[in-house]
Design goal:
The chain is α+β, with helices and mostly antiparallel strands and 373 residues long. 24% of the residues lie in helices and 26% in strands.
């Protein structure tokens, strides 16, 4: 069972002023306008505790039998809302200076996605992007009223946006303020709404924007276009538009940060004798120097041929992984030449050389799996 004294953090013999001070402190802490809607239940709980303990009769009943003394419905608020108690103790009732709510408000931010090829992400690009967002109504220019007419002061609240009401509470009759239902708090009404925007001051339309994509972006990167999002109600300022990048897979290159990786197949003879291969890169064909005696899984690095670096100069590297291929079919002449080579090298019946795990091929495999070049 809830202990209202514990909720407010006061002793059971606390005075009325001590209870009011405790409530003011906790109400400020838990009010949804300050702490967010996730604390609304905490705000209701401390307000309920104060409502009971600040009323002499309810406090006497609570001390005698706890919250159960009020029956299944609990202590109740007897028509006096949580906001009323807050307004009463914080002097936000009749003396409040709140005025009408502006009809014009800032619009929401918008998010669109843009697919990029790897080269566009590497070097940057200028792309056209078609988006559908709210823009200012061209007919009423955001006034929400039909051309030739205008909003009129609300006759119910007199343009204040708020109306006063009297509520009975354990503190006596309390004057509070509430939003005017006739004008929804705006302080004015629109007798003749604009037909094109239905009195919203904005309409939805498709438009084309130009996006400058910086070099080095990757999947998940966002580009902010200030004031290119949704125009707000009443023709209010536009929010921002965020362009989220999705990098499309490349058939050859794999990206790891600012570096690129690819695999090139090298014939066994070329790896043994050495050669120069022409390989594709984002910059076009490049010469790759294969040194004599190149081993399988060896990696050659081409500096500065990778991705552009976001928000800095320079580029990453291109790492070329060599795949030395062994022929699977030999004609008689080729087989004879290889047997002659094996005889010259004394490898006709080679003896296996055992190595500990971590050496040779296993070392290269381990480094490859660990992402090291």
């Amino acid at each position: 069972m809830t202990d209202y004294y514990e909720v407010l953090g006061v002793s059971r013999d606390a005075t009325t002023e001590e209870i009011k001070r405790a409530y003011r402190k906790l109400a400020r802490q838990y009010h949804p306008d300050v702490a967010g809607e996730e604390h609304s239940e905490n705000f209701k709980e401390v307000t309920m505790a104060a409502e009971v303990l600040l009323d002499a009769e309810k406090r006497r009943m609570y001390d005698a039998g706890g919250a159960g003394a009020f029956g299944p419905g609990g202590p109740g608020m007897a028509g006096f809302g949580f906001g009323d108690l807050f307004e009463t103790l914080f002097n936000t009732g009749a003396a409040s200076t709140r005025g009408p709510v502006p009809r014009s408000r800032r619009g929401q931010d918008a998010l669109v996605r843009l697919d990029l090829e790897l080269a566009e992400a590497a070097f940057g690009a200028r792309r056209e992007l078609t988006v559908e967002t709210a823009v200012v109504c061209a007919t009423c220019h955001g006034s929400c009223a039909r051309p030739g007419s205008s909003p009129r002061p609300c006759t119910v609240c007199g343009g204040r946006g708020m109306v006063q009401r009297v509520a009975r509470s354990f503190l006596g009759n309390v004057m509070t303020q509430a939003r005017c239902d006739a004008c929804q708090g705006y302080g004015s009404t629109i007798p003749e709404p604009c037909l094109d925007c239905s009195g919203e001051g904005r309409v939805r339309t498709r438009r084309t924007l130009v996006v400058d994509v910086p070099a080095g972006v990757e999947t998940g990167s966002r580009i902010k276009l200030t004031a290119q999002g949704e125009v707000g109600p009443g023709g209010g300022p536009a929010g921002d538009l965020y362009v989220e990048i999705r990098e499309l897979p490349h058939p050859v290159f794999t990206r790891r940060g600012d570096d690129l990786h690819c695999t090139v197949s090298v014939p066994m003879t070329a790896a043994a004798l050495g050669t120069i291969l022409s390989v594709e890169s984002l910059d076009g064909p490049l010469d790759l120097d294969i040194a004599p005696g190149t081993q399988p899984d060896q990696v050659l690095t081409l500096r500065g041929k990778g991705m552009g670096r976001l928000r800095s100069n320079g580029r990453g590297d291109l790492h070329v992984h060599l795949d030395v291929t062994v022929p699977t079919k030999l004609d008689e002449r080729q087989e004879a030449l290889l047997r002659e080579l094996a005889a010259l090298r004394g490898e006709e019946a080679p003896a296996p050389r055992l190595q500990p795990v971590g050496a040779g091929m296993f070392s290269r495999l381990r480094d490859k799996l660990a992402g090291r070049s």
